[in-house]
């Protein structure tokens, strides 16, 4: 092929095939693409792990709330003002911590009276996370006092 730019002196394509510079550029582009793909997979896997623990924490909070709702109102786990704690384990390893508190709740529908406790407000909180601030799931339910 004749060079259309006679002043430059180099042919547009080498008659022998691909040049070394083309191979180097193609290799660099391929390495960058593979590194970006690997990073996106690791980020995605981290998000999957994070939401897996979040689902476990929500299930633990719901399970604790159901267990507490099955107890009689006078059970030690439902005593007012006493903080309670436990751990959430999956396959023998601790993945989160759960706590619950029971507070007095005066139902405004039947009138407010000083010192009256119409209901118990139970708050279950499950927290997890090793790096940075802990993430939490909180559930609240009103229980009868008797």
Offer a few descriptive terms:
single chain; 146 residues; alpha+beta; four-stranded antiparallel β-sheet; 4 strands; 27% strand; rod-shaped
Description:
The protein has one helix and four strands; from the N terminus they run αββββ. Helices cover 34% and strands 27% of the residues. The longest helix is centred in the N-terminal third of the chain and has 50 residues, at 20-69. The chain has one helix at 20-69, and strands at residues 84-90, 93-105, 119-128, 135-144. It has a four-stranded antiparallel beta sheet, covered by helices on one side. The chain has 146 residues and is an alpha+beta fold. It has one domain. It is rod-shaped and about 100 Å long.
In short:
By secondary structure, this protein is α+β, with helices and mostly antiparallel strands. Helix content is 34%, strand content 27%.
How is the topology of this model organized?
Blueprint: H1 20-69, E1 84-90, E2 93-105, E3 119-128, E4 135-144
Antiparallel strand pairs: 1-2, 2-3, 3-4
Helical proportion?
25-40%
Main pleated-sheet profile = 4 strands, antiparallel
Instruction: Label the overall shape.
Output: rod-shaped
Low-confidence stretches: none
Strand order of the largest sheet: 1-2-3-4
What is Rg?
A: 32 Å
Termini Cα gap: 98 Å
Structural class: alpha+beta
Percent strand: 25-35%
Assembly state (oligomeric): single chain
Total domains, how many?
A: 1
Mean pLDDT over all positions: 84
Q: How would you spell out the order of helices and strands?
A: HEEEE
- Counted by DSSP, the helix tally is 1
Total DSSP E strands: 4
């Amino acid at each position: 092929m004749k060079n259309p730019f006679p002043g430059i002196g180099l042919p547009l394509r080498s008659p022998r095939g691909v040049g070394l510079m083309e191979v180097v550029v193609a290799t660099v582009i391929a390495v960058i693409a593979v590194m970006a793909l690997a990073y996106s997979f690791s980020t995605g896997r981290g998000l999957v792990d994070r939401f897996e623990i979040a689902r476990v924490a929500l299930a633990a909070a719901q399970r604790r709330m159901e267990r507490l709702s099955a107890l009689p109102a006078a059970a030690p786990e439902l005593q007012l003002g006493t903080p309670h704690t436990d751990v959430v384990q999956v396959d023998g390893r601790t993945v989160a911590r759960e706590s619950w508190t029971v507070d007095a709740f005066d139902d405004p529908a039947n009138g407010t009276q000083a010192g009256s406790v119409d209901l118990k407000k139970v708050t279950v909180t499950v927290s997890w996370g090793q790096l940075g601030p802990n993430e939490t799931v909180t559930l609240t339910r009103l229980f009868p006092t008797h």
